[in-house]
Structure of HTH domain-containing protein:
Amino acid sequence: MLPESDDRTRDRVRAAVLEHGPVSAAQLGTLLGLTPAAIRRHLDTLSEGGVIEVKLTSNAKSGAGRPARRYVLSRRGQSELGDDYLEIARTALEQLSALGGDAAVKDFAASRFAGMERRYLPIVEAAGSDVAQRSRALADALSGDGFVASAATIHGASALSAQQLCQGHCPIQELATEFPQFCDAETEVFSRLLGVDVRRLSTLARGGHVCTTHIPTGRVRVPAVAAGTGARPLSEASNHQQERP
């Protein structure tokens, strides 16, 4: 059995991969203050256990040279963070779908995220009218609920400027894999909170290493309206249909 100190260190490595992935071994060593040999040992153990996996990425600047090795949390690693009552929830949703079809599951998903929207609205509104600042406030609120979120600026022409919102953890990932209505409902909440038409680029449920949402900041913002007031979602197309593979 591993010494307790090794267990704690390994938990720190896994948490760092979750928060910063895709991340290199060298970056992890710097973040955690571990020697190259120590970080490699812990990464090897986590890889052998199926908790993390290697993602090969090209050189971001030139695209030339050998692909770089980056570590991300695996599907198993994501599920180990918490999937209590998963089978019960899956069975209930399957029965709901059988009785009421897609619309019933969609309504259920919308009701699940309605509470999140009510809690987040005053937080996002307090950030002011700037979409970028609202995006960062939304990321902070999501992180407070364990989604391990961040918002980064994508530079470009003013009309094309955007924020990219990333979520490193999804507590309902396995369910969302089978029922993408949950991803759609969450994305519609983001659109209403931010007042712009956002787009999902990737999701953990469809194999991405994070859930990524593109948020345009060079457009006029529409005032946020909470769900249940009769307002139409900003995006009429299904977000999981919009999502890039």
Q: What stands out?
A: The longest helix spans residues 86-125. The beta strands are 52-57, 68-73, 149-154, 162-167, 199-202, 211-216.
